[in-house]
Amino acid sequence: MSTGKAAERDSQWVWNRNLYMARFLVFHLICLAAIWTGVTLEALAICGILYAVRMFAVTAGYHRYFSHRTYKMNRVMQFLMAALAETSAQKGVLWWASHHRHHHKHSDDPEDVHSPVQKGFWYSHVGWLFDPDWADTDDKRVKDLARYPELVWLDRWHILPPTILGVGIWWFFGWAGLIVGFFWSTVLCWHGTFTINSLSHVIGSKRYETGDESRNNWLLALITFGEGWHNNHHHYQASANQGFYWWEYDISYYVLKAMSWVGLVKDLRNPPEHVIADQRHPAAQEDTDSGTDSASDEASSGDAAGWSAGAVSETVQEIGLSATQASEQASRRVSEIKLAATERYDDLSEKASQHYADFSQAATRRVEDIRESARSAHEQAGEQVERIVDSLQNDPKPATD
Asked: In 3D, which of 277, 377, 401 has the Cα closest to residue 332?
């Protein structure tokens, strides 16, 4: 890239960042306009409803569906969920999912998008939103979503859903509805969502060892409709429910469950019992028990042949146990594996296409070389025949006695 183009790109980024920061600050300042519009019960009701609807769309849509694919829905519902989530003014669906998937891959390590462990509270809460390192969408992480042109369009025009919602609220409910109902709920939804980035890796309890500082916090779970059971989520990301026990309230999951009863969503994935209990897969335990019994029986026989068979059996059981344990680990990281598999498949597909193109070109050149050699040999043979014929015609006939 030339220096001029690089400077132009940097200038564009500075403009976009300043515009986003200005909008972020203006949204907060506009909330103070309630001093002049007043705070009515109707406006407060609109604020509560918009907060609830949009928090559900962010947690159940942006997070559990688009980022982790923990359940299924048809293409129309997928579009509507994305549009509803974008009314929260938290940028586009592909951008959101891309950065969240990056967060899980590097949770609390130096490459994490918004780790309070690495860069403190304020950066993880809002600062990272204005960091040029996280301005763009990593397309490789959301290839499964980018297959849908309507999602790509929504992501590009993510400013439209909140704008349409704000204008609609103003049109039907006036200035108090706009300021208190729309702007207050938007800012509250922002900071409610951001607490999962900044606080759920600092404050709370750790039920599972997940290799990071993710924690469960009952208050954050209440504010974010279930997202506060964050240690549960990092333990098993492929689950549609983040509250693993009945007392761990998960409002987003309750709504998804109700939606599944009427066919709006389907195939809600839940954690297996042994994952919740943080135990090994039952098959692994059966292999261990079987191996112990077999070893005891063979030790008591004292037979050399029996001992050899027992050793082989133990080896086979150990292999089976290792395979089962590996399968268990894979099941706990199934969402990451699916994402990695998608990237690897795309990479392999590109490499295969390149190899095929190279081979095809080489084969084409080889065929052309063979044809040229054959054509040259044919011409040489023709010339040789002509020389022989000329020689026979020009030679005198042999003398006779």
From this structure: 277
Planar angle of CA 156, 161, 164, nearest 5 degrees = 130
Q: Is 303 left (phi over 0), alpha (psi -120 to 50) or beta?
A: beta
What is the phi/psi pair of residue 400, to 5°?
A: -120, 150
Q: Which residues make beta-bridge pairs with 229?
A: 216
The chain-wide mean pLDDT, for the chain, equals 82
Query: What is the model's pLDDT at position 300?
Result: 44
Strand partners, 216: 205, 229
The distance between the two most distant Cα atoms of the chain, rounded to a whole number of Å, is 140
**DSSP code string of 5-41:** HHHHHHHHHHHHHHHHHHHHHHHHHHGGGHHHH---H
CA dist., res. 120 & res. 37, Å (int): 37
- Is residue 374 over pLDDT 50? yes
Residue 223's alpha-carbon distances to 55, 162, 267, in angstroms, are 9, 21, 26
Q: 155-172: string of b/e by CB count within 10 Å (b at 16+)?
A: beebeebbeebbeebbee
Task: Please write the tens of the pLDDT for every residue from 18-43.
Answer: 777 888 999 999 999 999 999 999 99
Region of residue 225 (phi > 0: left; psi between -120 and 50: alpha; otherwise: beta): left
